[in-house]
Fold HTH tetR-type domain-containing protein.
Amino acid sequence: MEALIVGAERAFAERGFHGASIGYICQCAGRTTGAFYSNYDSKLKLFLDVFRRHSDRTADYIDERIAEMDTGRDLAPQLAGTFAEIFNGEHLDARWVFIHLEFRLMALRDCDAASALVEHEKRFSRRIGTMLDALFDRAGHQPALRGTEMAALLGAMTRGIKLDRGIYAVGGVDDPLSTDQVAMALEGLFRSVA
């Protein structure tokens, strides 16, 4: 099943959801179509697994970083640094700009995809929100926003920044926001809510 997910990630990034046939996904995965049908009853379910796998890796990274944070120090720059790395790092490379955008466009046109995306994002925001709430509890802070609200806001910011950066890169234009500027803005956000 792991090979199918890896192959599907490549196929979806290259050809999009509708352009990546099950045959092409299996070719990218080095598996037969029988392997697909023995694990999945729809391409959407495989797409969701690809999406979940990536989100889980990102959430695991955030969890590790939050666990290392020193609650005796100012949390705002520590959190800003972690999330700025996500905005700029390998967690959301150019391939993921396409996959995220593809899913969002599908969701605007397809009720099943919309329901699946909403459930996925709620799950992800709850997971990140729980981490943030626990961190603020350990530090003795009562933030103005709940963790899930902060997570939803950070998710929207991440998607927007990565989409813009992808467009600038294709257009050969320098990104108007440096990593340091993004970190500074995030530090202000975390300081204001905490």
In short: DSSP finds nine helices and no strands in the chain. The radius of gyration is 18 Å. The mean pLDDT is 89.
